[in-house]
């Protein structure tokens, strides 16, 4: 009974399996090429004080900061921009003029956090940082993890700059 259900769910009414669209497009040689991944838009900025929106909006026009959408929400005015440059300009404008707001870090500014398990408690966090730097990782900080009662665990948190090599730490962290 179950196999009949699965079969009918995966076929169309004509009995053939439906075609699946892919991101692959043929190039001039007839070979399939994979479409490049889309860049993620910058995070929204939430202007906390709604009464200041008119002033912020007029300053955005004056400073040539283009925003795609401004939406009234429970937490404030949600401002969406199209690119990272406008995000940075709007972010610095709000900071310089002491407007209360909230946002998240840009994708390219985020750090990579890796938990390294199985590290003996006797090895200090500074020694782990030195060893990771010797392996050519761009380490920002290393912290020893503890239980709630303060007892050190055999795990450390390594915070690295976001590079291609730093992403590999999650795959091939065999020798610390």
From TrEMBL:
Region (Disordered): 1-45
Superkingdom of source: Eukaryota
Compositionally biased region (Polar residues): 1-32
Organism the protein comes from: Eumeta variegata (Bagworm moth)
Record-given protein name: Pre-C2HC domain-containing protein
């Amino acid at each position: 009974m179950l196999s009949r259900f699965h079969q009918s769910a995966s076929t169309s009414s004509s009995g053939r399996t439906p075609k699946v669209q892919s991101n692959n497009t043929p190039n001039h040689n007839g070979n399939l090429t994979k479409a490049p991944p889309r860049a993620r838009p910058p995070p929204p900025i939430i202007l906390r004080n709604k009464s200041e929106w008119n002033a912020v909006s007029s300053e955005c026009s004056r400073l040539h900061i283009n925003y795609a959408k401004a939406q009234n929400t429970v937490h404030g005015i949600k401002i969406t921009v199209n690119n990272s440059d406008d995000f940075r300009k709007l972010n610095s404008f709000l900071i310089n003029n002491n407007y209360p707001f909230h946002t998240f870090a840009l994708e390219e500014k985020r750090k990579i956090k890796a938990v390294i398990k199985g590290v003996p408690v006797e090895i200090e966090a500074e020694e782990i940082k030195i060893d990771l730097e010797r392996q050519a990782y761009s380490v920002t900080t290393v912290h020893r993890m503890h239980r709630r009662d303060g007892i050190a665990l055999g795990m450390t948190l390594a915070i690295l700059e976001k590079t291609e090599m730093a992403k590999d730490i999650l795959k091939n962290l065999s020798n610390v």
